[in-house]
Every structure is written in C-alpha cells, then in structure tokens.
Write a structure and sequence with these properties.
By secondary structure, the protein is α+β, with helices and mostly antiparallel strands. It has 2 domains: about 120 residues, Beta-Lactamase, CATH 3.30.450.20; about 90 residues, no CATH class. It has 9 helices and 5 strands; from the N terminus they run ααββαβββαααααα. It has a 5-stranded antiparallel sheet with strand order 2-1-5-4-3, sandwiched between helices. A hairpin with a 7-residue loop joins β1 and β2. The chain is elongated. About 30% of the residues are buried. The C terminus is likely disordered.
Length: about 240
C-alpha cells in the first residue's frame, strides 16, 4: 500500500516543456501496443498528480486500470529510488494480471534534466497461447490497433491456420508468375514459404505437404535444392521474379 507521503515526494509541477515531453510519449504507447499485440498492456504515467498518474493506457483489460489510475507500489518504489540515487532508470519484474495470470513487466522512468517527470510501464501477459504469439509476429499479420480481445481483429487461432494463410498468399503470388512452368510452381511455392520463415515453425513441413498434396520428402527435397542454389550463388525466388518483370 502506498502512503500519501510517498505520493507527495514524487509530485512535480510540470513545466510546459515537461508536459510536452509526457504528451510525446502517447504515440510511443500506441506504437508499442501496435507492435506487441493485444496481450501487451502499455501505461503512461505523469507525476503531476501521482494519485491519478495514468494519462494513457492501452489494452487495459489485463489489469482493469484506466486513465486517472494511481501509480502502483512498484512504480512508486522505482521512482523514489531513482530520485535518491539517479539509478536504476529501468526495472524488470514479474507481476499478475487482474485474473491472476503471470505478466512480465518493465518500468522506465521518464526524466527531464535527470529529474523524474513520468513513468512508462509495459506489461506482457505470459499466458498468451504460442499460436497467437506466432501469429502476432507473422509476416502475414497486418498490424491493427487493438484495445481488447473483443474489439481486436481475429488472429489465427492455431498453427494450422497460420500455415494455411501463408500457403494461400504464396500460391496466389506464384500462380501469376508467367515465367514459372506449371510443373515447377509447387517447388517455387515451397521456396517462397522457406524465404518467409514458415519452415522455422515446428510441424510446418507436414502441414505444407498436406496443403500442397505433396509428400514431406518432396518438401525437404525442394528446401535442400533452394539451399544448394543459395550456397552456390544460384537464383532465389525473388531473383527469378525480378527477371519476369
């Protein structure tokens, strides 16, 4: 529990410049949340009123905090320590969501002339399913602002969906390449998937084989051929595409 005296020690009468600094961090909050997806809560705090420190928060469903919420106890302790020693400016620790789920958290002190004026907090829910985590960082996932699981666009809910979507995209691209003979299109589809990193996902070879109605040995053979071409200075799919234009 935070004492009122601790809030008072942190209270700052922000100058116009310092208010502008805090304001500039709002776009950073949006950017982090956009990149990390809806499993990541990002909160911006101002020390002008520590009891109502939160001035912006995204994906608030993890902690049920809102704009106008107070500094957490950990945030207060980090700021007090920084004021006394001028270090550390960043703290990483483990906390819990409002549902009791483990969260990896990072706080960074926002300063002006080495004096704390705000705090940036990032909480990542460690209960995120692996398939959703992979989907968030997939080359095929278009970034979209996400405030909650209800309003967020649907993600691939399984590795199967992710591979299926990836295969469809590469198939659509390769099928329009007039310089690739029909009997070699499957090979170049595999090349394209390999270059996009799909085969780094465990179990993806079998899934791609099923999608393309090929054996897993054929997939491995195509991957080997691509690696040999690349090692020997041969053409990749993207090179061949460039020649067809």
């Amino acid at each position: 529990m935070v004492d009122q005296s601790e809030f008072d020690k942190l209270r700052v009468n922000l100058t116009e410049t310092e208010q502008s600094i805090i304001e500039s961090y709002k776009s950073i909050v949006d950017g982090i949340a956009l990149f990390m997806g809806h499993h990541c809560e990002v909160a911006l705090h101002s020390l002008e009123n520590p009891e109502q420190a939160i001035v912006k928060i995204t994906n608030r469903h993890h902690t049920n905090r809102d704009v106008g919420g107070a500094l957490t106890e950990h945030g207060v302790q980090l700021l007090l320590e920084y004021k006394e020693k001028k270090e550390p400016q960043t703290s990483c620790y483990t906390t819990m969501s409002s549902k009791g789920e483990p969260m990896r958290s990072v706080f960074t002190v926002i300063t002006n002339d080495d004096e704390p004026i705000g705090l940036l907090g990032i909480n990542f829910n460690m209960k995120v399913p692996l398939s959703e985590f992979i989907s968030t960082f997939s080359l095929f996932n278009n970034c979209a602002q996400q405030e909650s699981p209800v309003s967020a666009p649907p993600l691939s809910n399984s590795i199967e969906d992710l591979v299926h979507n990836a295969v469809n995209k590469v198939v659509n691209r390769i099928s329009t390449e007039p310089n690739i003979p029909n009997h070699e299109k499957n090979k170049y589809i595999v090349f394209g998937l390999h270059e996009n990193g799909i085969f780094d996902i465990k179990g993806s070879v079998m899934l791609v084989a099923e999608e393309l109605h090929l054996s897993k040995f054929t997939i491995y053979s195509y991957i080997r051929e691509l690696k040999e071409k690349n090692n020997g200075g041969g053409e990749s799919t993207s090179t061949r595409k460039g020649k067809s234009r």
